[in-house]
UniProtKB/TrEMBL annotation, chains A, B:
It holds the Pfam family M20_dimer. One of its GO terms (molecular function) is metal ion binding. This is Zn-dependent hydrolase. NCBIfam families: hydantase, PRK09290.1-3, PRK09290.1-5. Gene3D superfamilies: 3.30.70.360, Zn peptidases.
Amino acid sequence: MLRIDTARLVQSLMDLGRMGALPGKGVHRLALTDADKAGRDWTLAQMRELGMQVRIDGIGNVVATYAGREDLPAVMTGSHIDTVRTGGLYDGNLGVLAGLEVVRTLSENGVRPRRPIAVAFFTNEEGARFQPDMLGSLVYVGGMPLETALEARDADGARLGDELARIGYAGEHAPAAPRPDSFFELHIEQGPVLHRQGVQIGVVEGVQGICWLRLTFEGKSNHAGTTPMALRRDAGMSAMRTAAFAHELAARLGGRQLATVGSLRLQPDLVNVIAAQASMTVDLRNTDAAMLARARTELLAHAQACAEQHGVAMRVETLADFDPVAFDTALVDGIERHARALGLSTLRLPSGAGHDAQMLARICPSAMIFVPSLDGLSHNVDEYTPAEDIGYGAQILLRAMLERAER
Amino acid sequence: MLRIDTARLVQSLMDLGRMGALPGKGVHRLALTDADKAGRDWTLAQMRELGMQVRIDGIGNVVATYAGREDLPAVMTGSHIDTVRTGGLYDGNLGVLAGLEVVRTLSENGVRPRRPIAVAFFTNEEGARFQPDMLGSLVYVGGMPLETALEARDADGARLGDELARIGYAGEHAPAAPRPDSFFELHIEQGPVLHRQGVQIGVVEGVQGICWLRLTFEGKSNHAGTTPMALRRDAGMSAMRTAAFAHELAARLGGRQLATVGSLRLQPDLVNVIAAQASMTVDLRNTDAAMLARARTELLAHAQACAEQHGVAMRVETLADFDPVAFDTALVDGIERHARALGLSTLRLPSGAGHDAQMLARICPSAMIFVPSLDGLSHNVDEYTPAEDIGYGAQILLRAMLERAER
């Protein structure tokens, strides 16, 4: 039986982690920076060393192919190598390097499956430098025109297209490359569920739908001591009551409904002044599209009622709105079967975060494998997954891809 | 009958308003700045011009006395001339300048009452530069040792005592000057009640008790998409639920209970990250000491319960804690009687803001007269009270002081 070399895979995570390394630990490798170029160059060298054919497309996605016995659509895996400002070694990188380890294992054992095996890394998955996140894979599947994507600007006004050219990754290939046969993505969970429950492999059934709202309440600033409660137009109170409602709503709807108010700002933000303005975000997620829509509707109705009661104006912006994605049943079942065959404990769960696989699911059967994140930490220099779990994840990736490629 | 010259009083408000004037309108005359010195010098010149005897005490309070027929404790009035950073022309200034207009009216008409008439302005009432607010009058009544007060520092580290000496107002007199016979303070309401109800004179029965709390919740930052509701330690949600409770509490306790959450800050304050830390203030006020204490107790109990439910630590700081002050019944009744004798509409109400009169109430019978604030605006360059209302307020001040001084 083919076996992944876990130590070698872990070493490659450490090696790639030297590109953009922060002092002490962690990585700062924002998309299309010099550090990202260094990471890309290093990864590309690995691909070439494995004799893979490399294609770089117009948005800088890199797809390397290990030829099959027949010229059929490839069984693809991959993820991203860009990180957030204070990121860890695993998020994204694991998916790319595990793919290369799969190819290395096949190559060393002289295995050439019927279909080609492709390993990709997609541009700007994190969205930490350019918006939206998952931009490279979105363009790859035809969800955004290349021209639009190249015009994205970072916070300092730098244009994505210029930065891409600057680091030498504005490729010639059309992003909508040949449609893959299928797509697998190995990723750390980035949440605490597997670690808390002591489960080794997460069988990802899909990605939650996401609705991000920004609510801005405009009231009137007044003296906290001299303005009777009934004469107030307290923008802050409308926001804070809406936030409390969001929490009650998640509890009431139950199931997989999540609600987070991560940002709330008051103006003028003084102890004895009634807030004239309050701006808050609400992050709603659910694997069930109908429930997510209901949560949004109920939340906005409550916010509007609070605003009216307080004599406050309310403005709503939708910052993100993604329907839930269901992964391919056959691929998901296959991952579970391979994990069990290896004697590993499994848990079916949705992904709470967005991943390139949800974009690929638009054009081919797709699925994801999760390995545990210690304490659920991610987007954090302390991000950690034990070598053993990394090896299990990569081994399942190898089996699932090979089975699919031989089909 | 003696009559205030309203036009002259309004002109003096405009004149003093030129010291530290902001471009366009409004005043920036923080305590012990050069602008404050200019305002003090101008006011002192007025006092001297009226032939009043001026005493400056060790904390920079200025008391000017118009001699009576007998050497008895003075009937005192006054307020402050420091302002907030973007203040108006009326807050504080009106009380000082109306006092001088009272003396001017007496002097022009050759009236010398039995008891002396004193007009004071107290240092750093606003608390916008040095804490606590009402510092000068607090020292005046012996509520804080002079030495402690002189050590107060502003946000840039400047020492109050040094700043006082720098502008030449570190006087030689002991702050606990001869105990006045009584104290009156004319002030704008700084709230909307009189203006909304079309009432001309507010008969102030006392000052609300104030309790300022800062609650700091410490939870754990986590991914909003991957952390199940039950595994969260959401510091923000503890704060926002506590804020919503504060509002319900004020409604439930009713009466004069006020509750304001004017400041709330989340860390890291990002849309998709559960807040690790939340810091909020709660401003509770009531004229009833027992009810205020109950509000505080209930609020803290709820906050603690929220924190425990969310697995979050809570820290409580008391930023201010003042019992309600009741003004002297005879003085309050007298103000109401004089207003009615002039055919003016009156309303008995508590002061929502703190005033020097509440400090003077510790050492002598005290009371306040309120005139309407347009739209309740205060601490605002648009602060405005019509000349007519200013004249009524000063006229009542004259009558009430004269009656008291002749007694």
